[in-house]
Specification:
Length: about 80
């Protein structure tokens, strides 16, 4: 895969990863983005399947962590709003 294709793929993946408002949708979009990225990187070493599996796991974990962070920020915003 050419470096420009990999760069474009990563840019698209990063743009799509932030989509979603629920834990399930953020985790799923993270897994999909990770799988696509892992497959692209894995194809460079002739093992796209293994790269996709590792990428999906890492992406799902990243999506879940991102979701929990967003929920905590929302809780803090609500708490500050009530104090005013």
């Amino acid at each position: 895969m050419k470096p420009i294709h990999l760069t474009l793929l990563l840019a698209i993946v990063l743009a799509v990863t932030g989509c979603g408002g629920t834990t399930a949708s953020r985790t799923t979009s993270g897994a999909a983005a990770g799988a696509a990225t892992g497959a692209a990187i894995g194809s460079l070493s002739a093992d796209a399947g293994k790269g996709a599996a590792i990428g999906a796991a890492a992406g799902a974990l990243g999506g879940y962590i991102y979701d929990q962070n967003e929920k905590e920020k929302e809780r803090q915003r609500r708490y500050r709003y009530r104090e005013q």
